[in-house]
Task: inverse folding
C-alpha cells in the first residue's frame, strides 16, 4: 500500500514526540508500505516567525526572538543525539545564517512584505524536515529532504497561495520517479512561477499532504495529530465527545469550516477528486483507528455526525420595506464586503425579502458598517432601508450529517431541544447541501446548547 503520512506541529513539539514520530514511520515501513512523509514546522515556530516578521516590519525590538528559535532547534538536535551529525551541523549553520541575513531585508509595510514573510516562514519547515531526515538516517532509514518549493507551483498570493494542481502533479511525479529514498517533504510551502517562496495558508501542511497524495496516487493520506480523529463536538463544551469513525469529504468540510480545527479545509479538494481516503490519527494513541474521511460511508442509522461551533461572532441585520422585491440588494451588499476582504460566515434572508442578516468576525463589524452605509447611502436616506443593527457576542453552531438530507424531523429535533432549554435562536441557516443546519445563539448559551444537542444526538442510543 502507498501512503502519505503527515505530522503537524503538536506531533513534533519536542525531542520525545519526534522520536515517537520516528517509531510510527518505522512501524509503517515495517508493514511494507511505500510511504512519503510531510512535515510542518516544530510547534510554535511558525507563530514565532510571524511575530518576528511583524516586529521587524513595525521597527520593534527583535534581538531576543531569533536566537530563541535557533536555540530551540539546537536543543532538539542535541536531545535527539544528532549534535555529532556533520551534515546536519553544516546545514543548520547555513540555514541559520540565511535566516539571520533575511531579517534585515524586510521591506517594511509594503506589498513586498508578504513575499518577504513567506520566505521567512519557510525556515520553520526547512529546519524541521532537515532534522527529521537526519534523525531517520541515524536510524538507518534512507531518508532525504524534499523541499516542496521545487515541485509545488502556486500563484503569487503570498500567505495563502493558490496551487496549480496539474503543473504541480507533473513536477512531483517526475521528481519522484528516479528516487528510491524516503522523501521527507516540507509541508506548507510552494513557489510561484518565478521561484519565489509562497505558503499555502496557516495549517497548510495538511493541504500539502493531500496535494502530494493526489500527485502520487497514494492509497491513503494519513494526517497525524494530537486528538483521536475528528470528534462529535469540541471537548471544551462536552464531557465525552466521541471520535467519529467515518465521514464523507463533504461532512468533514462542513465540520472543518465551522470550527473543528482538526484538518485544514482545502485538504479535502485533491483527495476528493482522486477519491483518496484521508485518515486522521492520534500520534499519542496510534493504536486507535481515528477518523476515516472518504467518498462514501456506510450510514448505520446515524443521521448526524457532529456539532461544530465558533464563538465570538457578530450578526449584522439589515432590513427595510424598500428591500422587498428589489433586485440586486444582496449582490451589492456582499460585493461591497468582499471587495474589502470581509469574510461572511453565515447568511440568512427571510422569504419576505424584508431582511437579510449575516455573521462576521467582531473585528470586521466597524468596517462592514461603514461599507454598507456608503453603498446604501441613498436607500438609507430615503428610509428604504432602516438603520443597520449589530448584535455581538454570539456563537455560530452547526449540526452536520449526510443523513439529514433525506430524514425529516432533524431541524425539528434540533430546535425542539433548544426550545426545551429555553435558548433563544438569533438566526438560522441551512446549507444548500442539506448536510448542515447552522444557527446562532448567544455566547453565554452556546455551551448549554451544544451539550443538550450532543446528549440527544450522540449520547443516547444511536438514532
Ligand atoms: N507551519 C505552518 C503553520 O503553523 C503549517 C502547518 O502547521 O500546517 O501554519
Ligand atoms: Mg494542523
Result:
Amino acid at each position: 500500500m502507498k501512503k502519505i503520512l503527515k505530522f503537524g506541529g503538536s506531533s513534533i513539539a519536542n525531542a520525545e514526540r519526534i522520536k515517537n514520530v520516528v517509531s510510527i514511520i518505522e512501524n509503517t515501513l515495517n508493514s511494507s508500505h511505500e510511504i512519503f512523509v510531510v512535515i510542518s514546522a516544530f510547534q510554535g515556530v511558525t507563530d514565532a516567525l510571524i511575530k518576528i516578521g511583524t516586529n521587524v516590519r513595525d521597527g520593534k525590538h527583535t534581538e531576543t526572538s531569533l536566537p530563541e528559535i535557533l536555540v530551540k532547534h539546537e536543543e532538539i538536535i542535541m536531545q535527539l543525539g544528532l549534535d555529532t551529525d556533520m551534515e546536519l551541523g553544516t546545514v543548520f549553520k547555513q540555514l541559520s545564517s540565511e535566516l539571520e541575513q533575511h531579517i534585515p531585508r524586510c521591506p517594511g509595510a509594503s506589498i513586498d512584505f508578504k513575499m518577504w514573510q513567506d520566505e521567512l516562514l519557510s525556515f520553520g519547515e526547512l529546519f524541521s524536515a532537515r532534522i527529521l531526515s537526519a534523525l531517520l538516517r541515524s536510524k538507518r532509514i534512507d531518508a532525504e529532504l524534499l523541499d516542496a518549493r521545487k515541485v509545488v507551483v502556486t500563484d503569487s498570493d503570498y500567505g495563502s497561495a493558490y496551487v496549480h494542481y496539474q503543473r504541480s502533479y507533473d513536477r512531483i511525479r517526475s521528481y519522484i520517479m528516479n528516487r528510491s529514498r524516503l522523501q521527507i517533504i516540507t509541508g506548507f510551502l510552494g513557489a510561484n512561477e518565478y521561484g519565489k517562496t509562497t505558503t499555502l495558508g496557516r495549517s497548510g501542511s495538511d493541504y500539502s499532504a493531500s496535494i502530494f497524495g493526489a500527485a502520487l496516487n497514494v492509497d491513503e493520506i494519513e494526517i497525524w495529530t494530537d486528538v483521536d480523529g475528528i470528534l462529535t463536538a469540541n471537548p471544551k463544551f462536552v464531557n465525552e465527545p466521541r471520535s467519529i469513525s467515518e465521514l464523507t469529504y463533504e461532512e468533514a468540510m462542513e465540520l472543518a469550516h465551522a470550527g473543528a480545527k482538526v484538518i485544514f479545509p482545502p485538504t479535502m479538494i485533491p483527495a476528493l477528486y482522486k477519491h483518496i481516503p484521508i485518515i486522521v490519527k492520534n500520534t499519542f494513541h496510534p493504536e486507535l483507528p481515528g477518523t476515516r474521511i472518504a467518498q462514501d460511508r456506510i450510514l448505520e442509522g446515524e443521521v448526524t455526525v457532529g456539532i461544530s461551533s465558533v464563538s465570538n461572532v457578530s450578526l449584522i441585520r439589515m432590513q427595510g420595506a424598500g428591500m422587498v422585491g428589489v433586485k440586486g440588494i444582496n449582490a451589492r451588499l456582499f460585493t461591497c464586503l468582499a471587495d474589502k476582504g470581509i469574510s461572511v460566515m453565515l447568511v440568512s434572508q427571510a422569504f419576505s425579502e424584508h431582511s437579510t442578516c449575516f455573521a462576521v468576525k467582531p473585528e470586521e463589524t466597524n468596517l462592514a458598517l461603514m461599507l454598507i452605509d456608503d453603498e446604501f447611502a441613498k436607500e438609507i436616506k430615503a428610509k428604504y432601508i432602516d438603520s443597520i443593527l449589530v448584535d455581538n457576542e454570539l456563537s455560530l453552531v452547526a449540526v452536520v450529517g449526510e443523513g439529514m438530507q433525506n430524514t425529516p424531523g432533524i431541524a425539528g429535533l434540533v430546535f425542539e431541544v433548544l426550545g426545551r432549554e429555553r435558548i433563544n435562536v438569533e438566526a438560522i441557516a441551512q446549507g444548500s447541501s442539506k448536510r448542515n443546519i447552522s444557527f446562532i445563539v448567544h455566547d453565554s448559551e452556546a455551551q448549554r446548547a451544544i451539550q443538550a444537542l450532543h446528549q440527544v444526538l450522540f449520547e443516547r442510543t444511536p438514532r
Observations:
- The mean pLDDT is 92.
- Residues 8, 203, 206 surround magnesium ion (ligand 2) (CB under 6 Å).
- Residues 322 and 384 are 4 Å apart (CA to CA).
- DSSP finds 14 helices and 16 strands in the chain.
